[in-house]
Specification:
3-stranded mixed sheet, alpha/beta, 26% strand
Amino acid sequence: MIGRDKNRSSVIFWSVGNETPLSEPRLRFLETLAAEAHQLDATRLVTAALETHRTDPNTVMVDDPLGQYLDVVSCNEYIGWYDGAPEKIDRTVWKTIYEKPFLISEFGADARAGRHGDEGTAWTEEFQADVYRRQVAMFQRIPFLSGTIAWC
């Protein structure tokens, strides 16, 4: 893929993983894969959507050991969609052990186009809009956040 796509201007990062469960074999493999990506294309940064965990009901910790081998630390975030009610977004704070650029590599909530209802009804455009508003407000409270990518 790197050989095929390294000259495409739309490629800004190489990702070596997406929500891969923590284990020593996984860490060794992805560390090697990150090094190989750097060797094959030294012009782009390497990232992965890391695993996170909660240190308490309101705190998300980004400390996946794979982060030490990446240029950009990222994770996917679906609080209010897969992870609790939308109100949970308002209470969530983020911490990390890394002093690297940090991205939310996926976020959002789904809706059926044209389905309407109140903000508390899943799959409605109003519910989706409410989740996005809350997520954007939460992102503004993450001092180390470098950027986001919405999952559409």
